Amino acid sequence: MKKMTAGIIGGTHGMGRWMTGLLRAQGLAVSVAGRATKTTAVDLAGRCDVVVVAVPIAATAGVIREVGPRVKPGRLLMDLTSLKTEPVALMLSHSEADVVGCHPLFGPSVSDPAGHSVVLCRGRGENGYALMKAVFEKAGYRVLETTPRRHDKMMSVVQALNHFNTIVLGMAVAEAGIPFPELQPFSTPIFTTKMEIVRKVFTDTPGLYADILAGNPHTKKILASYARVAQKIRARADARDTAGLTRAMEDAAKTLF
Amino acid sequence: MKKMTAGIIGGTHGMGRWMTGLLRAQGLAVSVAGRATKTTAVDLAGRCDVVVVAVPIAATAGVIREVGPRVKPGRLLMDLTSLKTEPVALMLSHSEADVVGCHPLFGPSVSDPAGHSVVLCRGRGENGYALMKAVFEKAGYRVLETTPRRHDKMMSVVQALNHFNTIVLGMAVAEAGIPFPELQPFSTPIFTTKMEIVRKVFTDTPGLYADILAGNPHTKKILASYARVAQKIRARADARDTAGLTRAMEDAAKTLF
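The joint structure predicted for all components is written out below.
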């Protein structure tokens, strides 16, 4: 039997490269298109059984519009971005192929699948979805199925709110007027952990975190809620209302844990 | 030679218990006063060579006022709180003993001293300071000497700003309207790490974190700066200004790392 073929657009870096390795390990013949490859996205779209769009969020819509019409019915078109509503809608409207929206909930440096999940959103067709579910589960990842809308709502907390919180911490520390090397010896375990996250977000791929924050359709609402909470806590801290602060944490803990 | 004696007020819990173990391991005869012990703070203050105040921040001033006058000149009075300006000033004005302000930059669950630091602030006298420096260094901790004022300025970033950031994240997640157990499967490694910190702060000793936040003399200024930064980043996210967000992170990274 002929090997199944996959084309990874943006397969030379990040999650695209990770996906390339994953599919090769499962016996697929994988071709890659990147900014520096001779093979183009259009080449792959016209000839592969599975076409994966793994370019940065900002470039995703353009690539889907370009390659979508070239992926034939019965084949699979899938994206890997951290947002799902818009990319899945675009894949459905610009292609007649099977469509799956995919979001691995981890970065390309993760080497052990244990404890890591991949979100899959059904777009169109059963075969493509079943194939990808099997691929990720066989590799050891947990597959979570949800709708694009619910995915983006979850990610407005897990990613947008979370990264906003990290960005504001990092910038506030930068503006505190104490050079970081002077601060570092005085670090506690919690501060060290949080500044490692700031370092990752600010120096790894800041553009990705900016896209995730600015691109989520629920960001405006969740940041408005963050601002209200911050104002409330700040007023209590300024008033030295330690009892009120303690109660606020205890009440939130009851909701959360 | 008679063993050196130490009295730990609040020695039955938390950092007081940790200090008890540390001094016993170095051969001192350590007595402990707590809410449930027959031995009182006043007993210890009158008879020990080293008297350590290890009660919660909110109770510290009262204990210093009570025991300070009973610690004899030439002996040592030391506190363990996360703030240094007020406790050191109080120990100096309410006692004629040697005075040291001490802040271990970690929690009582830390078992390995490697990589962990203890801040010492000289209050009065050389002997007490030299003794404590030797004790912590012999146990394997790094000793950082600074003034109470500089300590509290550092901690306004390392602790007050940091814990404020944690508290606001936890409360905003609680108010997002998605039950946490539903959110958890969708967690990324960064979100998991940050929610473990929220859990620790909200459920371990929320009162301690409230005291650290509300009690630091620099909190008002640092939270005002946090609010300004948050407002700026929120405006950029709402405007979907990913280039501006990315540049802000890159600029801050240059200052920080």
